[in-house]
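thread: overnight batch results

M.L. [08:02]
morning all. the overnight job finished for the chain we discussed friday. pasting input first so we're all looking at the same thing
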Amino acid sequence: MKLKLLTPIALFILGLSINAKAQSGRPDKLYSMSGIGFALPVGESSDYLKAKFSTSLGLNLGLGDGGLFLYPKVSLHAFEFNQITPDAGFNYTIQKGRSTTYLLNVALGYRKIVDKWAFYGFAGGGGGFILTPQAGVNAQTLQVTMDNKTNGMGIIEAGGGLEYNIGGANL
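M.L. [08:03]
and the structure it wrote out:
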C-alpha cells in the first residue's frame, strides 16, 4: 500500500526536478515569427513591380546552449504588376495587375541576450516562385482569357534586429 502511494509522489517530484532543469537553460529555445508589411522591389524589377503587401511566418529554433538559431520561414509577397513588353504569343501588356511570390527560406543566426534586450542577426538562402499575369484577347468573341506564368527563383536573405522582453512577450 505504501509503495502504491510513494510511486506517484516520487514520479511527480522527479518530473518537477527534470522540468526545473529544462527551464534553467536557454530562454529562447523556440519562437514563432510573423510579419506583415510591404515588399519593396529593387533594381530593374522596380520598373514593372510596385510594392503592395507582404507577410511571413516562421519558426526560430534555438540550437544548443549558445546563441545560435535556425530560422525556417515562408513568405508571401504581392506586387502591382505593370508589364513593359508583351510576352511571346501575346499582343497586349498587363497594367495594374497583381504578381505574387511564394518563398521558402532557411537561415542560420546568432542571438545575444543582455538583461531584457536581445540583439540578433541571420543569413540564409532559399527559393520559390513568382506568378505573373498574362491576358489573351480574342477580338472575335470579345473575351479576355487570364492566365499566370510561373518562374522559379533563388533568394539570399540577411537581417538583424533587437528585441525587448516585457514579461513573456518580446517586442
